[in-house]
Amino acid sequence: KYMESLSAYARQFLDQMQKPDLESIEGLPPTIAIHQRASGHNPRSTVATTTEIWDYLRLLFARCGSPTCWHAKGGKTCGREISASTATQIIEAVLGEFDGRRIQLCAPVIRSKKGFHKETLESLQHQGFVRARVNGTIVDLRDVMKEGGENPLELGRYEMHDIEAVVDRIKVSEKDRQRLAESVETALNIGESSLLLLTETPEGTWEEHRYSSRFSCPDHPSCSLESLEPRMFSFNSPHGACKECSGLGTILEFDESLVVPDQSRAVAEAIEPWRKNGKRMNIWYGRQMRRFLDNIEVDRTTPYSDLSPAQRKVLLHGTTPADKKKLGFTFVGVLPNLRKRIEETESDNVRERLHAYTASIP
Q1: Are strands 358-361 and 251-254 parallel, antiparallel or unpaired?
Q2: Residue 19 located in a structural domain
């Protein structure tokens, strides 16, 4: 039994022992052998991966698992078993939850796949679609396909991409029920029983809500999943993992106390990661800071601690549509700028330097 608990790699070097001629053995606990001489720092390394039982566990969860609804309201979680939803249930949910709000109905056609996907874009255009959502950004297919070439969207060949067809853009209303119903049916057909709903927020941004006619909560269709598959329980696959933390349980976020370690410094020099860059980047950051300070009519030598809470919020997090209307200018914000740099940079040195200003949070 101990031999069977070893990994397949280890067993190939050992002589195979014949199993005893017994019908049953009672009271024998399971044996698990874990080499503990060196500890692994990878958060994805667990007892299941070390003992190689995760292959069996993910198969068990995929075939015998019963997912439940996670919709929470008033401190209580729904907990109802997730099952397939009909188009009618989805329509009623949209009318009930988003009445009076602008929405965009999208049909997923490419999900986490590598390539340029030119054929997919051409197919959508031939079907009469004008817009598509590519990696979270709405594009006009008429403008995109004018470019021609093998890669009209300039996508990375070996990067994962998501593409959705924009089926309809409407303001939710009971009088437009028929139009909404037709759009939902179209999106479900094209998206192979899946639908992405984008709803406009008061801040002018768009929230994602996913529906499925295959696998979702009957009471809360936005709480939906793909049909359970073993890959959804793989530690090396993004499928099934939390989109926020990628399955790690924590995320790295820029810590304001590390970004601005000394609040007594002049505001123009207070942003630590903006000070420690090459000459060209320092000039660019300095220009951004001067523009911000001129707009709020604050001198560059003013201590950071003398800024009002509202001014600090705009400096660190950027302007919202409401701020833009009130203040009359836009500013990207220090933290969004740092997040963009750490996501887009190809330099390990830059990424390592910026990580020094982050902290792990649940």
Answers
A1: antiparallel
A2: no
